[in-house]
Structures
1.
Amino acid sequence: MSMRNSTIRAVNRLTSRWAEASVAPDGRTGTVLTAAGVWPLLASLADGAGGQAREELAEALGIPADRASTASRELLTTLGCIPGLEAATGLWTPADLPLDPDWVARLPDGTHGRLSGDRAADRKLLDDWTAARTGGLIERMPVQLTEYTRLVLASALALRLRWVRPFQEWPETSAEGPWADREVLRLHRTTSLLHRVRVAETPAGPVTVLEVVGDGAVDVHLVLGAPDSAAGMVLAGGIAAVTRAIPSVDGFTLPWGTPGPGLWIGRRAAYRPEPRLAVDTVAFSVEAENDLLEHAGLFGLETARTPDAPGHFPGISRDPLCIESGRQAAVARFHAKGFEAAAVTAFGAVGAGIAPPPPYHVRTIALRFDRPFGFLAVQRSSRLVLAAGWMAEPLAPVWGEEDWQDEE
């Protein structure tokens, strides 16, 4: 089952809107979010919703509610076929909650489990499912369980990829910028493929985007804006650039000088005739837990969370239901050899020698990430954004016993 371009655009639209709304403008706080994990759950809720709640969910999804279940199945099927990505959906209800069989039938096979009413046992059940579906990257399902919980609907995404060409890593103490006087773990590599770096003009000003190619079907893009640009707008601009919603200019075409944030382009002596892109960035690990109800309007949940009878989901159950909680736990790790990301989303309802001089002068690009920046994990062929985030604090080197012995 292939996924419609309209679904891809709808998921990316939600990613961009969420990123712009949730990333701190000053960029001093890191976060990571995965709208690709929220979107299919909202679609399932829209499929069973009625009245104003159905209309609000459809607007948040960006597609009509009567197409939501089909689009959700297409998205989940596509996610499950991406190498290196694990995707799962889960539904848990107590035995006495009457569910609409047609609604349940439109969920993925093997989705439905039971809540016992024993909160400790149910918590273990949900946490075990979370850890198993994310390979241990996330150990606890971010759902509020109370004596009134009648339904839990969750998704899990876990992505692992390795770089086609690894980075070299070394510790460095920054001389200036927000990480000044701190030892950080820097990553460096060079390539002759200048199209890996691009600059786009966005509402946040010029944004530099670096593509780091994974060994499967997913690449990671690092997004750097001007120091005074709002971080959420920089990330939204990067999403527009990598999804080709706006044009960008690659490293072969960019002018000399400093045409984008973090960039220097000129000519330098070299021993080989190929052009050269030298990338200097940092390793990072970001974790976040996002309360979706803090942005209830963005996700179409304003009406759905109100405890009004007769409920907002007549297509799910004849018993009245409203959304009690909605959260996403997410993690992303960028290192010398690869990238890992995972997200679990849940809704609860009450429900260096001497050498001759270099013979060549070649086009040379130096790109350095020395302040907070955004990152995006993007499925290469469809341009579906699987994860988006903001890196504020780089990793510090970890010195082991062998390092100290080597130093001695």
Note: The first strand starts at residue 31 and ends at 33.
2.
Amino acid sequence: MAIDYGSPRREAAGPHRVPAVLRAPLEGRTWREFLYLLTGLPIATAAFCYAVTMTALGVGLLVTFLGVPVLAATLAGARGLGVLERVRARSLLRLEVAEPEPVRPRGGKSGPMAWVGALLKSGTSWRHLLYAVLHFPWAIVTFVVSLVLMTVSWSLLLYPLWQWTLPTYGDQPGMQLYGDSDGYAFYVDSPFEIGVASGFGLVLVLITPWIVRGLAQMDRLLVSGLLGPSRLAARMWELEADRGVVVDTAAADLRRIERDLHDGAQARLVALAMDLGLAKEKLERDPEAAARMVDEAHGEVKLALQELRDLARGIHPAILTDRGLGPALSALAARCTVPVKVSVDLPARPAPAIEGIAYFTVSELLQNISKHSRAHTARVDVWRSANRLMLQVSDDGHGGASTANGTGLAGLAERLGSVDGLLLVDSPAGGPTTVTAELPWRATKA
């Protein structure tokens, strides 16, 4: 199951008639990122001073026992500053960064020294301290560049509106561009010069948002790279989530099998036993009635056997084990209410577990087509691409399928994610619908 631990939130955006280059100076994103760069310098200054001072103090005290807890406290404070930076990035940069892995003493130990040791061994804590050191020089650059560009560009653009204040209150005809010790000075005061200055300001106003966004993008990389969870921790959480999905899926399947046995074959066999008991009692008194009851019981036995076969097919079809994915999917398509064309192009059989997941994925997708799509035809394609097993189920129905929460496709996506698979749904309103599934290719062991 893929989890994104450091990605910008996408804002809803409709079609725009105004080009992006003209919208950018007035968009909220530009001013949020500019505010982020402005507020970054004072925070980075405080974080840098704290990190350098406390680290130097801790290292200097390492000759005594006090150095170790001081360094641990330094790392704990750096993690606290990381919380503030993630909040700023979330609110101003719209950057979602997951909380890093918590500090946990190993071996179930507890106590102050256990926590000190856990902090000192935590790579995440050291990355937070590194961020406090590296962000300071970058914050100086971004603060100066963004502030100067914003101030100069808007001042020049609006120069025709405030130029009159210079001769009125500044005792000079206009904005001074040059002056020397001999008394020569060049002022922007004629209508032409004012227009040129304003035009140059317009160019800067149009360019500045993209420079600000580029600077902010570097901040995004710093925050997501140093203040988020490590790749190892992210993968561990992902595997834990996948394990939970697998456990829930297995429990749901067991409950389904138990319910089907209890409500179906078991109930039918109990009724069959009662009927045979009554037939045995009537065998001597009324042989004809007993024969009819035995005949009815024979029909019940056939129905019970059919239900057991269907149940066994739902657990793992025999044709899949004996003949592979191609014949199994063809048999599955034959039971669909919509004509289905099946194409399977595999160089070899995948591992039984992957084969089973592929079979039940196609089975559920074909059931959705039968129940909801109102399609006339459908198609199933299976092939191998590099180290992935690809499944594609398409139909010409009315579309509108979605993996939104609460739907069968959402549960199917979770099942595929539990084995590093992926489910992609392309189903615009009005159709057609194409569902593509990817599974890892694992060959059958010899």
Note: The CA atoms of residues 197 and 356 lie 71 Å apart.
